[in-house]
Specification:
Elements lengths: L1 E10 L2 E8 L11 E5 L6 H16 L6 H8 L2 E8 L15 E9 L7 H4 L3 E6 L8 E4 L1 H16 L7 E4 L23 E3 L10 H14 L9 H11 L6 E3 L2 E9 L5 E5 L5 H15 L6 E4 L8 H18 L2 E6 L2 H4 L7 E3 L21
Parallel strand pairs: 3-14, 3-15, 5-6, 8-9, 8-13, 13-14
Antiparallel strand pairs: 1-2, 1-4, 4-5, 6-7, 10-11, 11-12
Helix pairs in contact: 6-7
């Protein structure tokens, strides 16, 4: 599953028509990593929120998000996604290598005249200019297949594929006080948005404590239960900083030493803010690992030193390759922008040369 393009017409900061494409013009394939940049109010967060709302709208059209109702009152938003045979285990694309689907909400008079030809496989709810007229509604068979695929995967507890994993800009690893050693609830959200919570139940720490308990029960010295959930985080934290569990709490060796020159283990919330951000992002991604997902992170540079910014982007590229995922991040940081090349950098400002970017060497942008 891939987001190919999102189109706005007179919606929020997007005046007139604005196409935001995630497609490489040379290959006509979606880029694995895209960086959205622009000044405050340029629409970075709106793009991520619109993708989230429109994908959720396909699954639950009876319960539209606020962004959907906002578009019905003023403007138009259309999302173009690409679906592949691998995204369906219970249905077929009839031999086609991929199919394009469009999801649109807003004002009927703002869409193309021959809308169903211009936007194939259309799933839409458009408000007619005359309020007395019925809405213009189309429900494509492809959208129905996608909805049923997600529903069946969740009911059978199959591995979810695709979907949207969204980390808003206000994400924060909140303090927990510990709790019972019990299995956490299973994560089955196809459209996931991270939200802050100080509850033990459902926290990363609860998950890690439980997986560690399973390793102890099984006498597993290789940490086969815990390791899949912490390996991504440990890769970012660096060597000799394994996540362990002591007294029912997750602990991490600090980057500093005590007066005796020994490493000190600290609770998760005692780590520096930048490392907490890394722990949050990669810990939550690990527990929701799925092929063909779309990963969106708003203001990726939050609390991150430039070195950590490069390291985070390097690991996100690795995830995109290994998971066959699409990564979309927004930023104000030139350090982040410098990790991508060409059209993978999407400047939402006008004029287009608002950012005076240096020319990248072949090896620039990689982790130090």
């Amino acid at each position: 599953m891939r987001v190919r393009e999102i189109f706005f017409h007179n919606f929020r900061s997007f005046r007139g028509e604005r196409h935001i494409s995630f497609v490489d013009s040379l290959t006509n394939e979606v880029r694995s990593v895209s960086v959205l940049a622009g000044s405050n109010g340029s629409g970075k967060t709106t793009i991520l929120e619109a993708i989230e709302a429109l994908l959720e709208f396909v699954l639950n059209p009876e319960v539209p998000k606020n962004l959907i109702t906002e578009a019905w009152e003023n403007g138009l938003v259309c999302l173009e996604i690409e679906l592949f045979p691998e995204d369906f285990s219970h249905f077929s694309l009839n031999g086609e290598t991929s199919k394009i689907m469009h999801i649109a909400v807003g004002q009927r008079d703002l869409v193309p005249v021959a809308v169903e030809e211009t936007w194939p496989n259309l799933f839409c709810h458009l408000i007619q200019q005359n309020g007395n007229k019925k809405p213009f509604i189309r429900k494509s068979n492809l959208a129905e297949k996608l909805r049923n695929e997600v529903k069946q995967a969740r009911q059978r507890k199959d591995d979810l594929r695709g979907g949207f994993l969204y980390f808003p800009h206000d994400r924060q690893l909140n303090v927990t006080k510990g709790g019972a050693v019990e299995p956490p609830s299973e994560e089955t959200s196809w459209v996931f948005r991270f939200s802050r919570s100080d509850r033990w139940k459902g926290s990363l720490e609860q998950l890690w404590v439980w997986q560690n308990y399973l390793d102890l029960e099984q006498g597993n010295q290789e940490r086969n239960n815990l390791k899949p959930f912490v390996a991504l985080v440990e890769n970012v934290l660096g060597e000799n900083r394994p996540i362990t569990v002591s007294g029912g709490r997750a602990m991490v060796p600090a980057a500093w030493s005590n007066s005796n020159g020994e490493s000190t283990k600290v609770h998760l919330d005692q780590l520096p803010s930048g490392e907490q951000q890394c722990l949050l992002l990669f810990g939550e991604l690990a527990r929701r690992k799925r092929k063909s997902a779309i990963i969106a992170i708003d203001e990726i540079e939050n609390s991150l030193h430039p070195t950590l910014q490069r390291l985070v982007m390097w690991n996100l590229r690795k995830i995109a390759r290994e998971w066959d995922a699409q990564v979309i991040v927004t930023t104000h940081s030139l350090e982040i922008i410098n990790t991508v090349r060409g059209s993978a950098f999407i400047n939402l400002d006008y004029p287009e040369d608002h950012f005076n970017l240096p020319i990248l060497d072949e090896n620039e942008g990689n982790a130090a």
